[in-house]
Amino acid sequence: MVASNDMDLGIDSPTLSVHVSPSHPEPELVKVPTYKGLEIEHSTYSTPRRILSTTSTASLTSPLNKRTVFEADLIAYSTEQASKLSYPVGCPVWYIYNGDASPDSVLSKVRHGKVNAVAMNVATRSFVYKIEKTTGEEGEAPAVDLVLEDNIAYAVSCPVQVTIEDKEFDGEVICPSDLKDFTGNDKTYSVMLVNNGNMLRIEHGVSSRQIKYRGVNQLLEKEEAVTPQAVTMDASRRRPFACW
């Protein structure tokens, strides 16, 4: 029973309409068409620390570099062996390194660095790259990241050799087509083709299968001049991970 002294509003009682204004203005969106809304962590290619895009937390379903890498599972490659891979030693790269974020997350960061060494994970048959991150301040100790191959792309101005219609051209990477597409090795790029230092033309949508790092031969020649070759193939392949 309802007490007699209670107020009975009834169906004819007025309805209140409450409008709540936000106490803060909408966040400013930073439009970075080339980088597809990712924060570039680089001393030259940098964006302000502001919201770059809106992403639902439901999309955080495919973490990057989430798999644990054990040193005992790694076999280090020599520089010559690594030269046969997508990103040889010395290759300038962009890479995503964030163990708690997916490529669609605003928390993901693209770092700039150079490949320092390569190993194979015998447990997963995948390649693991040791990348020395480019530091933004003089005198700052170099940071080193271990990155899976799927999360790496050629950096801006990386010297490459491009194969188009069975013809080889020297070129430079302008930018990856989509830095958020780190789901495999078949990435695409915009590439400037050059001849004796002069630009020939720009090609868009060039597959990573058509591109090779162009500075690998000079690096191998320099290493051979100062380092004796390994006695056997097994000796060069079975260097412990700690030698990196």
What does this entry show, briefly?
The protein has 3 helices and 12 strands; from the N terminus they run E-E-H-E-E-E-E-E-E-E-E-E-E-H-H.
CA(first)-CA(last) distance? 81 Å
Structural class given helices, strands, pairing?
mainly beta
Helix proportion: under 10%
- Order of helix and strand elements from N to C terminus: EEHEEEEEEEEEEHH
Query: What's the alpha carbon Rg, rounded to whole Å?
Result: 26 Å
Q: Please tell me what the overall shape is.
A: globular
Described by strand count, sense and barrel closure, the largest sheet is:
7 strands, mixed
* Strand content bin: 25-35%
Domains (count): 1
Region (Disordered): 1-24
Layout of secondary structure:
Blueprint: E1 39-41, E2 74-76, H1 79-82, E3 92-96, E4 109-121, E5 126-133, E6 143-148, E7 152-154, E8 159-164, E9 167-176, E10 188-195, E11 198-207, E12 211-213, H2 216-226, H3 233-237
Parallel strand pairs: 1-4
Antiparallel strand pairs: 2-4, 3-4, 3-7, 4-5, 5-6, 8-9, 8-12, 9-10, 10-11
